[in-house]
């Protein structure tokens, strides 16, 4: 019975998550209400509030859960930063979802919710103090915005290379790997 209930809960949460994302793409986050989400998901109000406090909670929890599932599903490399690479591919594949979350027209709520989702995931993956996790999560948001920005987009591979070099070797790149052209760390190129 518990497995059946868990499947029902997962389906309900998934429908609410999809409804929120679709409505954000159509209208922008600020113009979406809980009523809009439950109507789109075909879920009762009491069911919504049994799972989430409000739409901000739905956004944070669903982003965190989605990122956690994607990292787990695609994890093959054991290096500390490797699980983060999936986020670069997600931004490339779903720019229409990422733009209302972290793009130039993102609201403070969506930006901070997505950053908090990243911080929660980073805290689970990396053994780092809170301030380092906060720093990395904001840096990750910044680099991901470059992938989704049509005016100055960079390839996810290039964005990952820059992010990884900055995290591993710092802004000076002193201990960074040598490039084929002899230029040192690719962090700032």
What characteristics describe this protein?
single chain; 189 residues; mainly alpha; Tetracycline Repressor, domain 2
Write the SSE topology.
Elements: H1 2-27, H2 34-41, H3 45-51, H4 55-74, H5 85-93, H6 95-102, H7 108-125, H8 130-148, H9 156-169
Describe the structure.
The chain has 189 residues and is mainly alpha-helical. The protein has one domain: Orthogonal Bundle (Tetracycline Repressor, domain 2). 68% of the residues lie in helices and 0% in strands. The protein contains 9 helices and no strands. The longest helix is centred in the N-terminal third of the chain and has 26 residues.
Structural class call reads: mainly alpha
Strand content: under 5%
CATH superfamily grouping: Tetracycline Repressor, domain 2
Average pLDDT across residues? 84
The rounded distance between the terminal residues' Cα atoms is 56 Å
Q: Give the CATH level 1 class.
A: Mainly Alpha
């Amino acid at each position: 019975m518990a497995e059946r209930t868990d499947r029902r809960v997962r389906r309900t949460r998934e429908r609410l998550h999809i409804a929120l994302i679709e409505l954000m793409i159509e209208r922008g986050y600020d113009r979406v209400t809980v009523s809009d989400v439950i109507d789109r998901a075909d879920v009762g109000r009491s069911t919504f509030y049994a799972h989430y406090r409000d739409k901000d909670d739905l956004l944070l929890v669903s982003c965190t859960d989605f990122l956690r599932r994607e990292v787990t599903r695609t994890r093959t490399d054991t290096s500390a930063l490797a699980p983060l690479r999936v986020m670069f591919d997600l931004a490339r594949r779903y720019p229409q979802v990422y733009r209302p979350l972290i793009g130039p027209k993102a609201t403070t709520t969506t930006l901070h919710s997505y950053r908090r989702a990243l911080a929660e995931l980073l805290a689970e993956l990396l053994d780092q103090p809170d301030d380092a996790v906060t720093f990395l999560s904001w840096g990750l948001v910044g680099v991901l915005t470059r992938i989704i920005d049509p005016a100055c987009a960079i390839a996810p591979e290039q964005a990952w290379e820059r992010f990884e070099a900055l995290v591993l070797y710092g802004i000076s790149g002193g201990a960074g790997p040598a490039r084929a052209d002899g230029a040192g760390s690719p962090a700032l190129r």
